[in-house]
Amino acid sequence: MNVKHFILIILLVSYFNGSAQKIYSTKEGHIEMMAMLDSVPFKAESHNLALYLDYDSKVVSGVLDLKTLSTNNPEIKAMLAGEENPIILGFTGTVPSVDFLSKRHDPIDFNWLIDVTYQGKAFKSQFKATITHIEQVVSMSCLISARGQILVADTGLDSIIKGIDDTIEVQFAQMVLKLDNQ
Question: What's the sign of the alpha-carbon dihedral 9, 13, 15, 16?
Fold first, then answer.
């Protein structure tokens, strides 16, 4: 191989490496859901929320198999255990901040419009969200926390879980690390 081909290969690899999409991801995110069932409150939570943040576009996407929820309600616990296939809940939303991971900042509060998908149905929901800067010894990170309601009628859960209230309260918080410059 001559020098020109070698330089061309290095330039192409550098270009594609430098322009590759940068994604933060975790498969151990925490999410909680609360609702009323026959006028009795119940809570469900999971530590299996897969969460992705595209550093360039600031799009956050989450995916959760509802079968990973643990709950204090025996009826819902039995229903989830009885399902053979995954029960996938997904959401996507764009964080309206130019670059919250590059410098110190005060908490950023915003109304976060997200697209939710559940069992082939898609609908929108609005969450109250906050991005809080967390200073660590050698690195920088932010905590993204959000809280909102999902209308049960949008999901169709009211036909599966008899006696469930009109809304499900959802909240999650996830630490995202500063993008390392390469």
Answer: positive
